[in-house]
Design goal:
There is one protein chain. With about 30 residues, the protein is mainly alpha-helical. It has one domain. It has one helix and no strands.
């Protein structure tokens, strides 16, 4: 159970990082 929660948290963190990168990418496209 503990390892499962840790894995879930890691997946959420990965998703947040990817969405942040996508958000920055979209902002850069809008600026240009």
């Amino acid at each position: 159970m503990v390892s499962r929660n840790a894995l879930d948290l890691q997946q959420k963190n990965d998703f947040n990082q990817k969405s942040k990168k996508l958000g920055l990418f979209h902002c850069e496209l809008k600026d240009k």
